[in-house]
Amino acid sequence: ESCDIETKEFMSRKIFIIKPKTEQLSKKVILYFHGGAYVAEATTLHWDFLEKLANDTKSTIVMPDYPLTPKYTYKDVFNMVEPLYKDIIKEIKPENIIMMGDSAGGGLALALEEKLGEENIEVPEKLILISPWLDTRMTNPKIDEIQPNDKDLNKEKLKIAGIAYAGEKDSNSYLVNPIEGPKSKLKNVTIYTGTYDILNPDTKEFAEQAKTKNVNIK
Question: Which of 5, 53, 111, 204 is 20 to 30 Å apart from 64, CA to CA?
Fold first, then answer.
């Protein structure tokens, strides 16, 4: 094992703190939200990636085991992750925080930053999204063109997960569809996305919108 992994309790959920075994630990903390369509736990692929990330960056990674659907909705998720972020910034300056997520976790990271911005809470220095899921309604017509190339994600299955995550009344909330959230306070956004990914069309559209709000986005 190349990292030390500590488990803490937060609001009766687990939080994993991953630290590389190094003398030169950086001041940076990566708050990481794993993907899995809001339904699935972090996988061994996530753990391997996070250990590598911790070692390569010499940073501490905080990964919350946030509530999952169908038992919970996005409200339960935000009731955990927003207080967690507020707790972290009591000890660590936002300039030393990188928020990051993949797939559903990327959507969650973006939605959280939009919500923090709306509440005038200082946002992290950097936001890194890997193949983020930015609209759970999956209505972009270009999705159907890409679907035959995407062997991992299925539009219809994702829509079902999205409905469960949103709960009965909130399928149009920006917290489940961060493509529609307030963008003006977003800071230093980097997105990784592939053209054979059905989440790619919404990612491109989001990037165009963010640029019109003068967001520094790569």
Answer: 204
pLDDT digits 0-9 by tens, 145-154: 999 999 999 9
Distance from C-alpha of 182 to C-alpha of 173, rounded to nearest angstrom: 12
Reply yes or no on whether the pLDDT at 116 is more than 80: yes
CA 194 to chain centre: 17
Residue 101 pLDDT: 98
How is 23-61 classified by DSSP, letter by letter?
SS--S-EEEEE--STTTS---HHHHHHHHHHHHHHT-EE
Identify the CA nearest to 121 among candidates 67, 165, 83.
Answer: 83
Neighbours of 27 (CB within 10 A): 12
Residue entry with tokens 């219809």: 156
Q: Return the beta strands (E) in 41-174 as ranges.
A: 60-64, 97-102, 126-130
